[in-house]
Amino acid sequence: MNTKSLLLAAFVAAVGAVSGSAQVTSQNIVGYVRLSLAKGYNLIGNQLNNGNNAIGTVLNVPDGTAVYKFTGGKYVANAFVDGAWDAPAMTLAPGEGFFINVPAATTITLIGEVSLANSSALAAGYNLLSVPVPLAGGLADAAAGGLTAAEGDVVYQWTGSGFAAKEFVDGAWAPSAPTVKVGEGFFLKGTARTYARNFSVN
Amino acid sequence: MNKFAYLVVASALAVSAFGQGQIDLNNRGLALVNDAAGKPLTGTTFVAQVWYGASASTLTSSFAPSPFRASTTTYPGSWNPAAAGGPGALGTLTGFAGGSTVTLQVRVWDSSVAGVGAAQALTKAAGTGLSETFTYAIPADPLAIPGGMGGLKSFNLAAAGGPVVPEPTTIALGALGAAALLLRRRK
């Protein structure tokens, strides 16, 4: 999966609301992530917030595409057939991972705003996730994935035909620390807890 | 087996998706259902119902019927389990855990025809359809994406006025007539 991302640091350093000596500044970082999908199953995530994140506003895909989310230990499917999604209310929010099965190789572009404050409640067992911000690097690195690993965690990454597993045992990742690409989804098997990944321009 | 070897084995697991006894009820992109003339079936009054059990003789469980797609569809011959009233694209096979094998059969009929349903499809009544039985091995891997209809073979609806099985009285009358003809020739 080739990935190109551009954070149009459209730092709209807007709102210079000056009140006496107090100044409030908001920072909006908008941009896009372009993902090349292989024919068949791809495990990805939407890392930009477009507002409601409804599937039809997040994905522009060919007819015959199917999306699979994983909730409560089971998959939920949604297909784009005859020009419409079976379940148009499904959302693909930053931090969620999902399988996408495309009938032919294609490129999709995800557009939106970087979500600065992100917190996901992880269930005990399997969770299908993505890093909620478009950053590549070590999943457990503070500057990238920002996941605080817990003893016994196992990360499953899609290879195109199966999963590669990496586990956190005795305080270390084996066989190696997992790294993620921009737009990549992954399974995390672990204990119930919160995965918080906040982002600051600074 | 050391830890690294275990991980290598784990990573080699082909994921046909998480088990949990789930099944993908779609036949889109797989074998089709055709009308009696062999044309892929369309029309939302037609429905397909997936039956399942441990063997071909115990197909006692079923999902809600799924309507076929409209005539304008890109996928004629396929039903839509995600449509309103359908069972949803992915169903749970009650009583079948990941790693087990389930036997399946599809029954098709026109829901707009009064008195016609799965029972009539089972007898291959005119205008209904009945697939051959086939099996689905539920993935033991809980991360595997469910399959299901991969073993389905395309089939046609039974034609109206198709094979007619004569009733016993009809057969008896025919035999009597033939006997009478033979007797008359001998005379």
Tell me what you see in this structure.
Chain A has 202 residues and is mainly beta. Chain A contains 1 helix and 19 strands. Chain A has one domain (37-202). In chain A, strand 14 and strand 15 (163-169) form a beta hairpin. Mean pLDDT of chain A is 89; it is low at 6-20. Chain B has one domain. Helix content of chain B is 18%, strand content 20%. Chain B contains 3 helices and 10 strands, in the order αβββββββαβββα. In chain B, the strands form 3 sheets. In chain B, strands 3, 4, 5, 7, 8 and 9 form a 6-stranded antiparallel β-sheet that branches. A two-stranded antiparallel sheet of chain B has the order 1-6. In chain B, strands 2-10 form a two-stranded parallel ribbon. In chain B, a hairpin with a 7-residue loop joins strand 3 (46-53) and strand 4. The interface between A and B is medium-sized, with 35 and 34 residues.
Pattern of helices and strands of chain B: HEEEEEEEHEEEH
Radius of gyration from the alpha-carbon trace of chain B, in angstroms: 23 Å
Major protein interface: A-B, 35 and 34 residues
**Number of E-state strands of chain B:** 10
* Helix/sheet category of chain B: alpha+beta
Q: Choose one word for the global shape of chain B.
A: elongated
- Proportion of β residues of chain B? 15-25%
**Terminal-residue CA separation of chain A:** 29 Å
Backbone structural class of chain A = mainly beta
Order of helices and strands of chain A: EEEEEHEEEEEEEEEEEEEE
Estimated helix fraction of chain A: under 10%
- Main sheet strand line-up of chain A: 5-9-6-7-8
Query: Which strand-content bin applies to the residues of chain A?
Result: over 45%
What is the strand tally of chain A?
19
Low-pLDDT stretches of chain B: 1-19, 163-167
How many structurally independent domains of chain A? 1
pLDDT < 50 runs, ≥5 residues of chain A: 6-20
Total tally of structural domains of chain B: 1
How are the secondary structure elements laid out?
The complex is a heterodimer of chains A (202) and B (187).
Chain A: E1 3-8, E2 17-19, E3 22-24, E4 30-37, E5 40-45, H1 55-58, E6 65-71, E7 74-81, E8 84-85, E9 97-102, E10 106-113, E11 119-122, E12 125-130, E13 137-138, E14 154-158, E15 163-169, E16 172-174, E17 179-180, E18 185-190, E19 193-196
Antiparallel strand pairs in A: 1-4, 2-3, 4-10, 5-9, 6-7, 6-9, 7-8, 11-19, 12-18, 13-17, 14-15, 14-18, 15-16
Chain B: H1 3-11, E1 22-24, E2 33-34, E3 46-53, E4 61-62, E5 66-67, E6 90-92, E7 101-110, H2 118-122, E8 129-130, E9 134-137, E10 155-156, H3 168-186
Parallel strand pairs in B: 2-10
Antiparallel strand pairs in B: 1-6, 3-4, 3-5, 3-7, 7-8, 7-9
